[in-house]
Amino acid sequence: MSITWMTLKVVRKELEAENVVSLELAGPTGKELPTFTAGAHVDVEIRPGLIRQYSLYGDPQECRRYRIAVLRTETSRGGSVTVHQSLRQGDTVRVSVPRNHFQLSEGDHPSILLAGGIGITPLYGMARTLHRQGAEFELHYCARSEARCAFLGALQDADYRDRVRFYLTGQSPDYRLDLDGVMSNAAPGAHFYVCGPARFIDQVLETGRRHGIDEDRLHREFFAPPEPASDADPDGAFEVRLERSGKTLEVSADQTIAQALQDNGVEVELSCEQGVCGTCLTALLEGEADHRDFYQTEVEQAANERIALCCSRARSPLLVLDL
């Protein structure tokens, strides 16, 4: 999956909430930018070699700017800290053309939007789009406090504010989201969209499955993968064969498939390198993968048709890739 890049200017940087800044990005000449749809994200090269994905929360009808929000995290690998501390209004950054792996499902059905913390960013754009379409929807927004609610004022003043519910989990158990209640009271055929911390997403998906909601009505987008199990077994070596060239390579226990390919001169398009963005998904022609990405659904992983080269491994001695 090839990424097309643009050079954009940071025309505005503002504090949206505690530890959250918003960036407005535009072309140096103010020209129109490639269009996007609600739920889309862009890759941002914060500095050479450091690429992160951020959801677009702006109005898709705005054609001359992109808006993203960045949470500074305690476990930052350099991305969020650099954005908060070093990136300034007037700086230029490389930004990808928008891609959407978290689209609103087509059809006449209610939508339930479930946001945890910074996961509000794509869902904010979805709410705006659904309202414009006259569609039935609800937005449930969980955060620790009002100070940590990005876009709080805008959502409270929105024309659809009667469809927004806030849950300030740090105040009292009474303010916590009742997922069972939301799932059981949802209209038949409703689709659920969730974004936020991995544990929050897992809780929503598990609750939905427990209520018998089909996988094709449970939509999610991870910002980062869940923490790996502390008792995970060490990885073993295996081989990959490149179908187009016939070349066979060994992937050692301490490297990813992507690293093995790059070490042997095979170019691989990478972005998040955590299995959450889908950039490096490659067709798997033979072999059984040990899927460790958080981009594909469980159904897609079970189909064993594509593999994330940045994180997944093998359950069989050999994997044959469409490369």
TrEMBL record:
InterPro entries linked to this entry: 2Fe-2S_ferredoxin-like_sf, 2Fe-2S_ferredoxin-type, 2Fe2S_fd_BS, Beta-grasp_dom_sf, FAD-bd_FR_type, FNR_nucleotide-bd, MRET, OxRdtase_FAD/NAD-bd
Matches recorded under Gene3D superfamilies: 3.10.20.30, Nucleotide-binding domain of ferredoxin-NADP reductase (FNR) module, Translation factors
UniProt keyword Flavoprotein, yes or no: yes
GO biological process, one term: methylation
UniProt keywords, alphabetically: 2Fe-2S, Flavoprotein, Iron, Iron-sulfur, Metal-binding, Methyltransferase, Oxidoreductase, Transferase
2Fe-2S ferredoxin-type domain location: 238-323
Short name of any one Pfam family annotated for the protein: NAD_binding_1
Span of domain FAD-binding FR-type: 3-105
GO molecular function, one term: methyltransferase activity
Protein name: Vanillate O-demethylase oxidoreductase
